[in-house]
Amino acid sequence: KPSIPDLTINKFTAYLKTIFSSKVFNITLLLIILTYSSITIFNVTSPFLIQEYLHKTVVFYGHCAALVGTAWLLGNLLSSMTTQIPNFIRIRASLALIVLASLVMLFFHNYLPLLWVYLPCFFVIVVGSGFIFPIAYVSSFAIFPELAGVMSGVVGSVFWFGGGLVAEVSSYINLQTPVNLFIFHFAVAVLLCLIYIFLLPKQSALRKP
Question: What is the pLDDT of residues 188-197, one digit of tens each?
Answer without folding.
Answer: 999 999 999 9
